[in-house]
Amino acid sequence: MTINLNKIISDIKYLGSRLPSRINLMEVCGTHTMAIGKNGIRQLLPENINLISGPGCPVCVTAINEIDQIIELSAFKDIVIFTFGDMLKVPGSETTLLRQRSSGSSIKMCYSPNEALQYAIENPEKNIVFLAIGFETTAPLTASVVKNAAKNNIKNFFIYNLHKTVPAAIFFLLDKDEKLNLDAFLCPGHVCAVTGSRPFEFISEKFKKPAVISGFTPEDILKSILMILKQLSANVPETEIQYTLAVKKEGNIFAKNLISEVFDSRPASWRGIGIIEDSGLSLKSSYESFDAKKVFEINTMEAREPKYCECGRILLGEKKPFDCRLFASGCTPENPVGPCMVSSEGTCAAYYKYERMNMK
Amino acid sequence: MCVAVPARIKQINKTTALVSYMDMEREIDISLVPDAAIDDFVIVHAGFAIQIIDNAEAEKTMELFNEIESLKE
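Structure tokens for the assembled complex are given below, as produced in the milestone run.
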């Protein structure tokens, strides 16, 4: 099998040239943002196709007061925080988890939540708090670990729940869309591996915009863009699956049931956006003994957003990283001001790494 | 975090499995894919298999990865 991207690219250019003026295509998922940057996909597209990054970076959309609370928790001497790597450098109002670690707080990086539970079993004198962050791709993992902890009566394991869900955020953007004029969506492939395509069908059915669930290779992304352009040309919006490798219409039913067993849906606070209804997950009352927010008394001080940081507007797709006064000047991956520069899926981090040659 | 490649199941041990990707092997949790069998390809995220992959599609993707690797040599 040979890679024939040239045909896909020339088809994109042809269809793009026949479509009216500007097409605003939102790629929701942070991993897509990075893949697009890394593979130079923006540069391959005709000028009238505008790829806008959306709020699909779970670290970037975590409210700053929650970062502050986690940092407070990490200072308690009997608590060990377990987290995915990205969260370590996210600036709260005053400091980061990484700096707390250098001050002596017990904060450990993990690849899988199972490591956190295992540590709790092996260290019964400590309280282990796992930072449960991510969308529907990660929520079933947390659900599995919490259920295991309950089954084995583990009393020193907790989660600090930050899980959010994607469809409600997209609904919010489309419902409020006045400035953005979003024409189509590239939907997150691994979220959909769990949820299936159904939760995203409202994009084409209610809002009449094309939606394509895409994989992460350059071929996947370009094919998905072509599928979107074909839909726009025919004026027949649909929610299609390009990533048939991993995405079934019904998703992973077992994983979805596990999420429903352990979590309820709730409103959630998205950094830069505000409260979005039905966009978060909270532990059901039968599992509330695992909820770090309920078990530990954490004083919330007033959160301070960093001055001049445009992460909020960037997450909504209203501005690009180049529009931020701090980009590549006061805010870099080594010294990040906002979360979009820290996260491995952050829009500013992607632009810093891959798009700076396009800065005017 | 979300980027994953097809990993092939080599051995199953109740809720965990030994999977291989290219030359590497790793133990992962397969409790989210109870129907997974030996030789199935799965998508792995943060140490868990989150979905079983369509076998025919997986073979094509692995061919593509191998082709890219051979171009690098």
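The longest strand of chain B covers residues 6-13. Chain B touches chain A through 27 residues (CB under 8 Å). Further analysis is deferred to the final report.
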